[in-house]
Every structure is written in C-alpha cells, then in structure tokens.
C-alpha cells in the first residue's frame, strides 16, 4: 500500500508542476498580445508559433501569422505560406457564405483568399511567373 501512496503522491506532484496545454496556450497568447502592444512583430510571431504547438486546432493563429508577415514585416513569401496553411484548414463542405462547423467564420477564409490573391500578384511582379501555384488547394504548374 505504501508504494501505491508514494506513486500517487509523485503523480500528483508531476500534475501540479507540469502546466497543461491550455496553460501554455494562455501564456503564449498573453505573450503575443504583449509583443503586439510593444510593436514587435517578429517576437509576436514566435509567441504565436509557440501557442500553435499547444493549440493545434486554433487555425486562426495561422491566419494571424500570415497577416503579420504581410502587413508588418512585408515578408510576402512567409505570409503566403501561412495563409495557404490556413486555407488548407477550410472544411470541404463550407461555402463562402456559411460555416457549418461553427468554428472559424467563413468571412475570415474569404479575407485570406483576398490576401493570397494580392500576395500572388505582388510576387508575380517581383519574381515573374512561378513554376507552380496552389489555388483552392489545387496545384497548377507553369507551361514553358
């Protein structure tokens, strides 16, 4: 019986000293908010990426990272990457007007689509024709 009590106490101590994923999520969300207020977008993105490690279902974080990359850092390649990752989370049955899952607003996906269109146009004029493009989760290759 004594061994079971010791194991119980040690397991309880581990639970009490190891923060839950929810705690990490809240801490990194607060850190990202602090960096946002301090106007430190690179640090804000790092905090959001850490938050996403513990909150993998919060796909809106991908949109936020892409938006910060696009607006604050003007890193269009990274913005495109994260906005495409966000768009890949759109439920297949979701139309542009409704969100059957009730999770992420359909309008946020529409905003992401418009941002991606703007980024693709800007990258096209900066870099020329890409060898491949992904539009609505379909890959298209350039014809030479």
Automatic annotation (TrEMBL):
InterPro entries: TPR-like_helical_dom_sf (IPR011990). This is TPR repeat protein.
């Amino acid at each position: 019986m004594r061994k079971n009590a010791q194991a119980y106490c040690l397991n309880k101590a581990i639970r009490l000293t190891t923060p839950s994923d929810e705690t990490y999520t809240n801490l990194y969300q607060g850190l990202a908010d602090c960096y946002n207020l301090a106007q430190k977008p690179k640090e804000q993105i790092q905090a959001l990426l850490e938050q996403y490690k513990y909150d993998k279902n919060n796909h809106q974080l991908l949109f936020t990272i892409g938006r910060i990359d696009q607006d604050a850092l003007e890193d269009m390649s990274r913005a495109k990457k994260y906005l495409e990752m966000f768009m890949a989370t759109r439920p297949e049955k979701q139309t542009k007007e409704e969100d059957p899952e009730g999770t992420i607003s359909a309008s946020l996906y529409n905003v992401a689509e418009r941002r991606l269109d703007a980024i693709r146009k800007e990258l096209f004029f900066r870099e020329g024709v890409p060898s491949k493009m992904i539009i609505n989760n379909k890959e298209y290759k350039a014809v030479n």
